[in-house]
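Margin note: ligand = nicotinamide-adenine-dinucleotide.
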Amino acid sequence: MSQIKFGVVGAAGRGASFFSAISANPEACVEALCDLNEQGLAETAARVGVTKQYLDYEQMLDDAALDAVIVGTPMPLHAPQAIMALQRGLHVMSEVPACVSLDEARDLVAAARASSGTYMMAENFTYMRPNVLVKAIARAGLFGEMYFAEGGYIHELKGLNEITKWRRKWQTGINGCTYPTHSLGPVLQWMGERVAQVLCVGSGHHYRDPRGDEYENEDSISMSCRTERGGLIQIRVDMLSNRPHNMTWYSLQGTKGCYEAARGMGDQPKIWLADRCEQVEWRPLEDLAEEFLPEEWLHPTEAQLQAGHGGGDYLEVQDFVRSIREGTPPPIGIHQAMDMTLPGLVSQQSIAQGGVWLDVPDSRGWR
Ligand SMILES: NC(=O)c1ccc[n+]([C@@H]2O[C@H](COP(=O)([O-])OP(=O)(O)OC[C@H]3O[C@@H](n4cnc5c(N)ncnc54)[C@H](O)[C@@H]3O)[C@@H](O)[C@H]2O)c1
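Resulting structure:
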């Protein structure tokens, strides 16, 4: 079978992070690159040895004879560029979040439904080894009924706001949970359900940008999520507070077990499971790797490891390629992408109304 030919838009930025995973996959290849940054595009193309280069996205879609695209451009372009590709019957792997408004969300879902192409959102934090392991343990039922979880994306990026200026508008220029998927995505996979309602509040404004303007986004955004079965998920997204790097935090509580991610400074992910521990005490999550981790994580190939992040980057692309080849739903298809994206969009309305509970739509019901 011939290789799946990928075009990558945003190739001089985030899009480049997909090259090694695509190139390491014998069933895929990077066929064409697109970026508005002419010099960055030429340098990237020379580095990866790709001759088809485009400054215009639609021209790439129409002329490059592609099977699939990676959308690695700034947030407001994800939905429009994904829709353009889906309308041409191309497969789409989009960076996070899936879209930046509820109207866009509806348009994207409609386009994905109507298309012969497969849509997958590249929520790469669901491909982190501890998160994959917790998911496997959760699926085996060992946490019992899961009713509380926490997710945190705590990544000071005031400096990056000045380099990638779209961030100053779309991440820190709007109040509410503007970048929810890294913290919420893994937790939703563990709990196996959807957020039905959100309530969002913030910690106030303690920082200004280099022009002296207050960031519209409050420093620490707290988004409470009520799940369909009545569980509670607490999300903290903070992209402004002065602090050392320690980007992620997760916890999970069920009737028969609990999990806490590593907090840094030599800490390690830890778990307690009533069915597996004689005492009520923590044990390292890693103790359960041999039994629960999927084979491809336990014994990664050389190609996997070369692609980065312990093989996660490779497996993310492999899942997408497999779903295209086999015609099976990808792990983060259009509705899972919406489950991870929509709570953040509704949170922006909640915080604007002083922190009220608001319903989060279920895209499965959209017609
Ligand atoms: N999943 C992750 O861990 C992760 C990490 C970083 C960034 N991201 C996401 O990736 C996206 C890009 O982030 P970034 O940090 O690379 O931003 P960036 O600004 O550094 O790069 C974006 C690239 O897109 C190009 N571009 C902009 N508009 C374009 C257009 N119309 N056509 C073609 N190219 C265009 C720019 O020239 C630039 O090279 C964002 O949505 C961000 O949220 C995800």
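The mean pLDDT is 96.
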